[in-house]
Amino acid sequence: MSFWVAASLFFGGALCYKAATYIMNIREGRQFTKETTEHLITFMNLMAFSFAEATNMKYLALEETNMTEEEVLKLYLIDRKMYEAWKKSLATRAFPKFPAHHMDLLPTFDWDGALAPLENIYYNNSNSQEEEEGTSNE
Hints:
rod-shaped; mainly alpha
């Protein structure tokens, strides 16, 4: 085998290896960011559900204390603002913590669609609590 044939086979193999590992790294990076994003949304859903349950228990306890409706409404508005601030801070701080070489692999993400279940959990539990209070007061 001549020197040029051996050299071309060696460098061709090295080039193919480099290209194959680059493609596999991109694939693994995309899979990493996708799974991390899904885990983050699942974590946010669990946290929102726990937050909704805690506020539900809070309003049940407040109902037993015979607070006025205006005071309960003020507490509800404070809780709602706190929930919105928590949701926004988590969403804005999560992705900048990704490794720099994975930032360009982040999928385009519909945050409004992803956070809709969070709002449904929180607001529907709070609304059902208000409806229960309305029916129990009548």
